[in-house]
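Dear colleagues,

As part of the handover before I leave the project, I'm documenting each prediction I ran so the next person doesn't have to rerun anything. This entry is a single chain, and its sequence is reproduced below.
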Amino acid sequence: MNVATDYSPRGSLLFDEPMSKHTSWRLGGPADRYYVPLDLADLQAFLAGLDADIELLWVGLGSNLLVRDGGIRGQVVAPLNALSEIHLQDDGKVYAECGISCAKLARFCQKNGLAGADFFAGIPGTIGGALTMNAGAFGGETWAVVERAVMIDRRGKLSERRPRDFGIGYRHVDLPPKEWFAAAVFRFERRAADDVSSIRELLQQRNATQPIGQPSCGSVFKNPPGKHAAQLIEAAGLKGFRLGGACVSEKHANFIISNETATASDVEALIEHVRRRVEDRFEVRLETEVRIVGESR
């Protein structure tokens, strides 16, 4: 599965692209270079021709990402809506490329009579992001249903790996150096005739408990073993606490909301304030789910 020769990239290469347009917090300085491939073959060609010294950052929906106000040096790769192939294989398993939204995977499985994918509807990201962090919702986790992953390396070469090739944990996956997820094959059971999809009910539950529709990254902190980050934050008296344009949600304490005046620095400062307060009160060090990248202004 090597990249074809005599092939030129066909996607869109943007310079000084504001990352505030590509993150769910609507924050972040500019990326030096921002590439949107047309498809997987195009991405292979682009990576094959990219200078080996340029650092790479992959961005999907930007829903688990805080980009600092100084922006990103190097190259951003944005496969959202570009690596968008999804289909049922002859063996009944589902092939999905990394630019597919998790919600689309859930709907695809519902339409095709497959059970066990409904939880993906509650993950506000792409397949690539879900694979990278072992994302989960409503008691389900991504890697529990992965048969194999298609990887792409720095030179655009594709290879397949099995779950045993990764260090997989709670909201964490150890990747081989200079390899990223291009696609995955998922295994699901056939849905029983009397098994009604619960996607709508799950989304209603999420909407009732989370500040959906406001700029956030979803859950900021991982749940410590045996505890819930939101409960610790609320018990520390931080619901509604504000720094600059960033505020701990009144609806769900593990969400940080940004307003139109917010900067990435405001959000990062609030993350650290919450972490210190919880540690001082409960001797629990919260670890972030959100990935913080880029340079300070």
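Helices lie at 40-49, 102-111, 127-133, 199-209, 229-235, 264-282. Confidence is low (pLDDT under 50) at residues 1-5.

All the best with the project,
I.
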